């Protein structure tokens, strides 16, 4: 098989799969499917409780996924990449974040799902699906995983960093459910959307930069 065809499949197929999964999940939520209701009820019963330590953790840690915080972190990351003249990675970071969060705003208003009708432990505004905290954190920390894999040479450091980055969106998603401001299906939808846009962004980075650079290096 042609190597170019193989590499395109390696990047485009995962992006397509997650995009389809996200679309299917969004349709289930929008149609108020019974499976979604049962899923939300089951997960909420497992996660939510009145433990004061967990309440404190959830109400504090959830702030790491706030739109303003994610925006500042993204801007700082883009600036750092630009300072080190990693312009392709800076464009990848900015473009992926803008696309993911812009689309999230559109789909939120298209589906217009109300937040859980219960006492919220933290302030929350706007519609519920998908979770903006989950979309933003999954996309940003997913980008950090990609950058770590591409730029960090030490294998041990690379492994540790990737595990740390992966923990952040999972914990942020957990806090959104625990704080009663999102249904579990909102968080899952946010993760699927964030990963889909991350993979789409990586496909562009690969085919318009990494692959070209690899071909140039092979000719030297």
TrEMBL record:
InterPro entries: PAP2/HPO, PAP2/HPO_sf. It comes from the Bacteria. It comes from Lactobacillus helsingborgensis. This is Phosphatase PAP2 family protein. Keywords: Membrane, Transmembrane, Transmembrane helix. Residues 89-202 form the Phosphatidic acid phosphatase type 2/haloperoxidase domain. The chain crosses the membrane at residues 12-31, 64-84, 89-107, 127-152, 159-178, 190-210. Pfam families: PAP2.
């Amino acid at each position: 098989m042609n190597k170019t065809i193989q590499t395109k499949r390696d990047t485009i197929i995962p992006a397509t799969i997650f995009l389809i999964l996200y679309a299917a999940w969004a349709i289930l939520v929008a149609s108020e499917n019974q499976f979604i209701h049962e899923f939300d009820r089951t997960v909420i019963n497992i996660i939510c409780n009145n433990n004061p330590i967990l309440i404190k953790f959830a109400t504090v840690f959830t702030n790491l996924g706030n739109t303003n915080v994610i925006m500042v972190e993204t801007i700082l990351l883009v600036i750092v990449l630009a300072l080190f003249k990693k312009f392709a990675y800076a464009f990848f970071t900015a473009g992926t974040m803008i696309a993911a969060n812009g689309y999230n705003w559109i789909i939120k208003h298209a589906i217009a799902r109300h937040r859980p009708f219960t006492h919220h432990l933290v302030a929350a505004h706007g519609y519920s699906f998908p979770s903006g905290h989950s979309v933003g954190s999954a996309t940003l920390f997913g980008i950090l995983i990609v950058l770590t894999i591409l730029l960090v040479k030490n294998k041990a450091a690379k492994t540790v960093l990737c595990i740390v980055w992966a923990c952040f969106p999972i914990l942020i998603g957990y806090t959104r459910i625990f704080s009663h401001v999102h249904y579990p299906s909102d968080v899952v939808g946010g993760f699927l959307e964030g990963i889909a846009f991350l993979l789409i962004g990586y496909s562009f980075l690969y085919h318009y930069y990494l692959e070209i650079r690899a071909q140039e290096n092979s000719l030297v």
